[in-house]
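We close this part of the discussion by returning to an individual protein. In the encoding step, the backbone of a single protein was reduced to a row of integers, each denoting a local shape. The sequence in question and its structure tokens are set out directly beneath this paragraph.
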Amino acid sequence: MLKLRDGIVELYRKVATSLPPDIEEALKSALSSEEEGSSARAALAIILENTRLARETSRPLCQDTGVPVFYVQVPVGLSQLELRETILDATRLATVKVPLRPNAVDGITEKNSGDNTGTGFPIIYFEETSGSTLTIDLMLKGGGSENAGQTYRLPVSELNAARDLEGVRRCVIDAVQKAQGKGCPPYVIGVGIGAAKDQVTRLSKSQLMRKLNDTNKIAELAALESRLLQELNQLGIGPQGFGGKTTVLGVKIGVNHRHPASYFVDVSLSCWADRRGRLIW
């Protein structure tokens, strides 16, 4: 497991210091769409220069290296207990080597563990698969954008949001309006729909792992993603909240079956640094 541990350390380095190509291309496209001399264009230019320097110097894109969130697809017969320990060991090493900012704070004592490990930290989701390949996806989720997320229980009378996709649409717009530039836009938006609060929060965050240029397999959701992308970029919040045409880079929606009495919607916001990457072992 030592080679796997070292591979995870390098995954941490890659995710912390380099934007995914689709995110960087979207930021470049956004730059060209903003007006010359505008605060929005200046903010995007700084973001792209920061991205270049981080990649060239192998330094983190942001001082907040976030909460590590792992999505691990495990072949049958491979020990999840052993994998968890390997991920924890890699996290401790990456904190020193990348370096990562120590972000794991005990909720009772307020003591920082100093190595990004602790109770439920990092967050690790395992899924057993029938294949023979171990796949490890990592997201570094910034605290500011995490704080801007919202959970809704439909119907919501003040939004005139019923238990349908139109209601979901109203919730997403409301969440971005409430954020008002907090959490470092332009955002990537993840949306989860389902039966329970814990289910939809996990689902919405996992949507942030999708590439911006993918197409939702459910036609109704693909149409809603496209519509929301246009509508959210008409809000005028813009990069870093300075105004402009680019508030959101992408919208991704996932859905689960729900209970007849429950219709939960969770909206996750990622900052412009939607830091994600994959290790295949």
